[in-house]
Amino acid sequence: FGYLPVVGNASTCITIDLGTTYNLDELAIWNYYSDGRTFDDAITSVSANNSTWTTVINKIEPDTNNGKRVNAYTN
């Protein structure tokens, strides 16, 4: 996706439109943390219509270098 600067404890929302509906097997999220930043309480949701959302990742522990992921076959 790219770089999104956030200062302090600001809440941030990113919406990525894939242009059409897809059946996804896996969704993986990685946040940059090598400089000491932490990303806690990150929620990842998906939507087919940008108005009805389903939360697929809602973990309160900080990210690691493995990121956070959800797999359609194991979650």
Descriptive report:
With 75 residues, this protein is mostly beta strands. The chain has one domain (1-75). The chain has strands spanning 26-29, 42-46, 54-59, 68-71. It starts with 25 loop residues before the first strand and ends with a strand.
Percent helix range: under 10%
End-to-end C-alpha gap: 24 Å
Characterize the overall form: globular
Indicate the proportion of strand residues: 25-35%
Q: Give the strand order, joined by hyphens, for the main sheet.
A: 1-4
List its salient traits.
single chain, mainly beta, two-stranded antiparallel sheet, 75 residues, 4 strands, 0% helix
Structure at a glance:
The chain is mainly β. It is 0% helix and 25% strand.
Layout of SSEs?
Elements: E1 26-29, E2 42-46, E3 54-59, E4 68-71
Antiparallel strand pairs: 1-4, 2-3
